[in-house]
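sanity check this record:

:::
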Amino acid sequence: MPRPAPKRRADVPAVRLDTESVGGERSANKGPTAPRHCKPGSRRATRRSSLIPTPAVLGATALVIAGGGAVLLSSNSGATETSDPTVAQLAAQPGAGPTYARGGGVLVSRSVDRETLQRQARMQVRQRNQALADLADQSEKLSAEIKANQWVLPVVGYTLSARWGETSYLWATYHTGLDFSAPEGTKIVSVAHCTVIDTLYDSAYGNLVKTELDDGTQIWYAHQTSYVVSVGEEIDPGQLIGYVGATGNVTGPHLHLEVRIPDGTEDGQDIDPYTALINHGVQP
């Protein structure tokens, strides 16, 4: 006789235990199952239902977010207006755009109206032209200063025949200048910017021109055939003074050049012209 099936309790649903899965998910080794259910009013059901936002909650959240953004924007705007006066000036310009922070918190205008751009461009051009004009003036003054202090060779086509400090029967004590031997009639020019202080004929120097520089240094040009300058005349470096000759105590045509520095006497103290020329950038 077959064995009767066991009775089941009416309030317990028939559920296969081996296929049960939480949340209706598929078991690792079994097929799909129905999700577990909770009795209404149970603690689990209450917890799950409390996580679902209601329309009222959503509305309140939106208002809070909007209010926070407005507060943040207002705070930022206030900082912009009070932190940098330049920003306020830019903001007050017609057509000026918003201000933004760029590198190190410096606030700059994003857009400037065309009139402001043109005005600033004109200002920039004026400033550039002024800077160039100032530079040109400085260059001109410097050029004039260099020209005034520049020394040049007194003759060309020469050979040095006697130097300062040499001794010989030709001179009473020692040679007081530097001799530039050149053909008679060769042009003699001023070594530096100077003023002619004397022109004369001297038995030893022949036709002699004495000049004085701004610092009191004197330069003498001796043994000329003739000269073309006069006392009190101001002459520049390279300007014609006279011509090489053989007047005075000479053995041939040449320019006898002397350089004399102030020493309290009328004619000053003679120094080596070769060294003086070298010190002023001239190589004899």
User: Anything to note?
Assistant: The longest helix spans residues 114-149. The two ends are 150 Å apart (CA to CA). The helical segments are 43-50, 55-83, 85-92, 114-149, 273-279.
